[in-house]
Design a protein that fits this description.
The chain is mostly helical. Helix content is 81%, strand content 0%. The protein has one domain (2-254). The chain has helices at 2-17, 20-52, 61-85, 90-95, 97-103, 108-140, 145-170, 176-192, 202-211, 217-221, 227-254.
Amino acid sequence: MTNILAIVRKEWNGYFASPIGYVVIGMYAIVFGYFYTVGLSWFIRQSMQAPQMGGGGAMNINQQMIRYVFLNSTVIFLFVVPLITMRTYAEEKRSGTIELLMTSPITDFQIVMGKFLGAMSLYVAMLGITLVHMAVLFVYGNPEWKPILSGYLGLLLLGGCFVSVGLFFSSLTKNQIVAGMFTFAVLLLLWIIDWVGGFTGPTVERITSYLSLTGHMEDFLRGIVDSQHIVYYLSFITFGLFLTAKAVDSERWRG
């Protein structure tokens, strides 16, 4: 555990020794703030117009505002996570420190988990910024806390999947740009894979719907924590880290 934490600290220091950590967090904070402001403005206007137009029932801020803000924020991760993960192994190879890492008394599991938790800690820091926006809603409104909590759980699991893909491609090359572009391409493919289901038969549609990374987010944002979705995300993360471990192991043998 000590070795894993040492790698986590090394990764964290690496993010903020260069502008990447500040740029990623700043970019996410600005874009999420924009989505939040636009969504809240729309919700307030609709709430004021509903009685005048004879709309029945109160509007639900969780389903009609927060849900869509969270969904839109997943688009940001599609661009931001490759920036976080592209340097994890590629930079080590480029600078030559990968040889020192491979010859250290550290197992492949510890290396992979340290890199994974290091990238996830920056991801969690980004999510932490959004708690300020949610706190404002609780001060001035009355949202339900359970859908928000399950929504954050879904975002954490989704982020873990994104990071595991990024680590794998970073472990295959010494070029950070190549690692980032491959990560983005694969994540985009897994993002839109369920679109294919609309033009095929029901069997393919069920398969592509299950493989879609964002398709499993819907229930979390509704406040439903389904074990099927949790198993999918955890299996995806495990498989991604397994492939990364195999790539790291092959690097050790080549070294």
